[in-house]
Amino acid sequence: MNIGILALQGAFAAHEQAFSDLGVSVTRVKTPADLAGVDALVLPGGESTTMSMLLDSSGLRTPLEIRLHDGFPVFGTCAGLIMLSSDIKDGRRDQRPLGALSVTVRRNGYGRQIDSFETPIIVDDGAQQIEMNGVFIRAPRIEEVGSNVVVLSMANNDPVLVRQGNVLAATFHPELGGNGYVHQLFLEIVEEIESPRHSKMVRN
Amino acid sequence: MLSGGVIMDVVTPEQAKIAEDAGACAVMALERVPADIRRDGGIARMSDPDMIEGIKAAVTIPVMAKVRIGHFVEAQIIQSLGVDFIDESEVLTPADEAHHIDKFKFVIPFVCGATNLGEALRRISEGAAMIRSKGEAGTGNIVEAVRHLRSILGDIRRVGQADSAELFDWAKQLQAPLPLVQELAETGRLPVPLFCAGGIATPADAALAMQLGAEAVFVGSGIFKSDEPGPRARAIVEATTHFEDADVLAKVSRGLGAPMTGIGMDEINQRYAERGW
Asked: Which helix (H) or strand (E) is B53 found in, with range?
């Protein structure tokens, strides 16, 4: 399993550390050739306007859209979620989302830097409740979710962790002060695709 | 969230829009770019709140604003405006010749300049959330930024080689708190991001800073003192992302018109980098 991380701009180093803590190394993706070499992709936090522009200039947008259409597993946090969404409010006028996740999202939906906050995030996976610290920095706010989107966690009455097929996304930063749960969840999604019958064994 | 990005100095809402459209990850709102502060002389202060509000309203990316070294009331005012980051900057005329701002008293994060590792650690001990190498603002000359980055990163590597007894001496030499020096030796990196500022004028300059080890770059006069600010701003953004790819750097360096003229270090009589203690 070769996990890639979009390294155009933003908090890609923190994600690398989070995966490294789980014993998984990741490859930085900046070009179409880099993208072709990975089995899954993380879209980190940063400025979505900057990343969106660089996605076009690097030639990554089209090959990424094609792979997303074919069920490419991706994990977006904060700005990464904005890029994966289907509708962006308060974006730059030429900012085009990738449309892999049926959510309407408002950029800076909780306000500016001074309004950034931390709050407990609880995920109920059916067997147990997992609690982690949610760090929201100029975070996007999910305003609408499509019927095919599973909301894995809510905070302050907003969806903050969602999944649609092989797309996992968080409005907060699980790579900052998290407990590795969300990254582990993404690894399990990728493993499930790679060897659907043996995924339990791999996990254990 | 600014890592791998370019923070651009802007003096009007129109410039802020150009910067955002070019892919800036943040803008620095100020009344005059450093090259003009240098030319005009006099006392350089915090910008007019109206001007900062105008820039805040024009863009959706984070907005930073500068305050004078030690001028904590300017910082209180900037914070009340809801600006995203404060730069306690040597480009403005210092308000205090001994003390920097106690940055722990503020909610919004501070970025501070440093010419060497000791200065960087002192700023961190006062609460700075980001450090930028100072370079020499308003010159379009990268030489000082390179000197400062090499000094900071070289000493980080040297501290990493020191044994535990030597760290006491390092703390003394650096005039920095021992716990920060010990943490640095343990992790091999500053506890906050290290950016580069002061003298970046071309895409190659930005890539040089990134290859030396900066995590993001500030471009002050280099964009809006050049012939074609929009294309140059965009080229510097691309160079900062693809800083190790010489083919991309060659491509984005073409046809940008003239960069800012720039000045040699022996032609200036005031070094801003010497401000700060």
From this structure: helix B49-58
Query: Which chain A positions have a beta carbon within 8 Å of B25's beta carbon?
Result: 9-10, 46-47, 50
Q: What pTM, to 2 d.p., does this model score? A: 0.93
Nearest alpha-carbon partner for A154 in A168, A137, A167, A142: A142
From first CA to last CA, the distance across chain A in angstroms is 16
The conformation of residue B198, written as its DSSP 8-state character, comes to S
Q: Are A103 and A195 in contact (CB under 8 A)?
A: no
Token reading at B70: 């030690």
Bridge-based pairing of strands A167-170 and A158-164 is antiparallel
List pLDDT tens digits, range B145-167.
Answer: 999 999 999 999 999 999 999 99
Nearest Cα residue in chain B from A9 = B4
The topology under which CATH files domain A2-203 is Rossmann fold (3.40.50)
Residues facing A145 on adjacent strands: A103
Residue for token pair 């992302």: B241
Neighbours of A155 (CB within 10 A): 17
Question: Structure tokens of B215?
Answer: 């995590």
**Tens digits of residue pLDDT in B14-23:** 999 999 999 9
B134 is catalytic: no
CB-based contacts of B85: which residues, under 8 Å, 6+ apart?
A: A113, B26, B62, B63, B64, B65, B108, B109, B110, B111, B129, B130
CA A23 remoteness from chain centre: 19
Cross-strand bridge partners of residue A26: A3
Which letter does DSSP use for residue B39 in this model? H
Chain B hits for A92, Cβ within 8 Å: 20-21, 60
Residue B133, beta-bridge partner list: B114, B196
Domains of chain A by residue range: 2-203
